[in-house]
Amino acid sequence: MARARSRAIPDSRFPISGAGVLARAWAICAKDAAQELRRRIAIASIFFFAATAVTLVSFGIGPFGLPGEARDRVCSALLWIILFFCAATGLPRAFVREEETGTAFALRKVAPASLTLAGKTLFNYILFLAIAAVTVPAFSILLEWHLGSPGGLAALLILAGYGLSIVSTFLAALVARASQKNVLFVVISFPLLLPLLLSAISATIEAAGGALPATALRVVVAYDGAATCAAYLLASAAWED
Hints:
Blueprint: H1 2-8, H2 18-39, H3 41-61, H4 68-90, H5 93-101, H6 104-110, H7 113-142, H8 150-175, H9 181-208, H10 214-233, H11 235-239
Helix pairs in contact: 2-7, 3-4, 3-7, 4-7, 4-9, 5-8, 7-8, 8-9, 8-10, 9-10
């Protein structure tokens, strides 16, 4: 009788509706946001790094009178280099913080790996968009870089930012218990994110010239889909094992 009753009660770790999944993923995202806002120093350091990088690049590139096409190529590459290293500075903390504060075991008990990955990816995605919202306008102003298609660049940042966020979040789960977390994260993430970064640079060059980077955006969407499937299939192996 007791055994039959226990079977009838659903496991609280696994929500039974789509709304429940979204609500619990958002709860994990809100928890991470509250923890970061209480400390502030971690998020402030990311934005400080972005501001320092943009300022140094503007002083380094500013004196050179580059022609329009060469300037678009240089600025596109430098922009994504800055965004990549900003992401590498802040996004790995998603799972590393759980191990450092000793809350990882409790989180594994109350939420499955896929749900945890969804919540932390959402937080990292919002953080990346906030970084891009500050970095890109400052970059354009300080380097006097005029974009021909701001809408194309905005669409690229939304799509490529998601791919960057989910891959970074998954890799953060993978290296969370390693001794040299930051170094290992950069070493692993660069080859995995290289196709995304190259497509993003190519699309940014097209957007700077005034064209809509349709082909490059399709490549980014395909990368996002493949990265999402791989991350959720391997989430349990990366986080729970």
